[in-house]
Amino acid sequence: MSRWPIRVRLVAGFSVAMLVLLTASAVFVYWRVEYALDRGLDGDLQRATVALEQATGPDGRITDEDAITATGAIYQVLDSRGEVVAHSPSAGAEPIVEPHGVDHPETVDVGRFLAFSDRPLRAQLTPIEVAGGTGYLVVAVRRDHRDEALRELLVQLAISVVGSLAVASAVGYLLARSALQPVEAYRRQAATIASGATGVRLDVPANRDDEVVRLGNTLNDMLAALERALEAERHFVDDASHELRTPLTVLKSRVQAAQRRTRTVEEHEEILGELLVDVERLARLAEQLLELRPEVTEDVLDRITANLVANAHLHGRAPVRVDLQRVGDWQVLTVEDNGPGMDAAMLDRATDRFARADDARARPGSGLGLAIVRSLTESAGGQLRLCSHGEHRRFGTHVDLPCRHDPDRMTATVYLPAEQ
């Protein structure tokens, strides 16, 4: 069944449950009707037995035929050997039932219910005293109407169970198909997205709020997050390739220039020193690129501090002040410098990868320092604030604490959870 479609499995399970329920209900109804009909027959048997016992003489003969005829019952009187000594005209000379040593009243059914019997009887066998020992009084009533009613009930119950099961299965299939139709639509749209389509979202009904709708909304949120991540990765690759291309081109040019003519040992050492500067720049850039994929470790605050201080020394102006204190549930790291700071436009993109102001391009650096700080801070569940000349920018988790710093200084503030 695990290979069957979900709607088929749902309908199959629902149908089996309905079959069990309907069958149990039919058995209960049949049993209750049978019990009621048998009680009616047993009442007739009991009344006829009392009348016959009173009208049976010591020799086993019936003394009052009129009274017995009024009961409408079939009877036989058996001696101790089980032979018929008296009987009603319709009973016959053959025993209706065999006593088999019965010592108390016993009710038995004679004749088959299925297939039909020519002489269906319900009989009560009662021990009585007759000449020569213990005899038996057999009183029987026909159960034709009882059997016919039960057979008719069986047919009606079978039709009802089959009909109800068919209707319930059809309704269950329609409901399952209706419930799973949005999921199938999601699957088709997801296949379209997987084939390379961008900007596509699942069609989620706006006027409903059920499990399938919530699934569609969650998948749309996931698709949006994936698109943002892919777009960020694409920008990162473009920016990284651009930033790496320049130092690699310079390094290649220096090597080619060094190969154009024979040089002295001193000239080679000078060229090697210049090449080492370029290689160290590439190594630093590679390390910074790796830091953009951080894991939250115990040295997060140290790495953040190192990047902020290095950024302040590179792009700011002394003195650089570093302060670390705990405020409530937060550790607050503040780095200030006396540099010119950033304008509003630069503050907006200061944490972007490879973002540098025009006047900073002449200085060393790759524009990854604040991007690394933001990445580390957000990974640790904190917030980065950049403040310059009354302009404030916040990145990461919301922190309900005011800025406390000199408004005339360039300030970078990091809020980290205290347990970090």
Would you summarize the structure shown here?
This protein has eight helices and ten strands. By secondary structure, it is of the alpha+beta class.
Description:
- The chain has eight helices and ten strands.
- Strand 6 (321-327) and strand 7 (330-337) form a beta hairpin.
- The strands form two sheets. It has a five-stranded antiparallel beta sheet, with helices on one face. The protein has a five-stranded antiparallel beta sheet with strand order 6-7-10-8-9.
- With 420 residues, the chain is of the alpha+beta class.
- Residues 301-405 form the Histidine kinase domain.
- It catalyses: ATP + protein L-histidine = ADP + protein N-phospho-L-histidine.
- InterPro entries: HAMP_dom (IPR003660), HATPase_C_sf (IPR036890), HATPase_dom (IPR003594), His_kinase_dom (IPR005467), HisK_dim/P_dom (IPR003661), HisK_dim/P_sf (IPR036097), Sig_transdc_His_kin-like_C (IPR004358), TCS_sensor_his_kinase (IPR050428).
- This is histidine kinase.
